[in-house]
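Researcher: Re-running this chain for the archive, since the previous output was lost when a drive failed. Same request as before.
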Amino acid sequence: MSLDVSPELLDTAARGQVTDAEFVDCVRASLPYAWTVISSVVADLELSEGELADHEIPPPSEAERGQLLRALASDAIRGGLERHFDVKLAFQNCHRVAAFRPSAVGGAVWQEFVSARGQLLNQSPELRDC
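Model: Regenerated structure tokens:
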């Protein structure tokens, strides 16, 4: 299961739309490692003048890796996080998370990160099983 959904939030969802704030609170509580990684990348981006900030440290366990995978593989979760933080997220190798300024999407730095070439250049034998 990806998220720990309270009975109250599940009831709200059954009755209609859930707000982004309610959804993001559920994500924050359910996926604390993913939340920490993504919020720290966003904080690094806010402190920089660059187009992206990224996190390249492999998670300490498979449980934390699973949180990143669930957060970034789900369109709903990724979209909620992107709207909440006002960034575009990108992901490589089951652990490399990047946050881009919206204005950078489509530009050279973005294209390089999300390209097949960028993915291939970011490979190493120790990451084969990630």
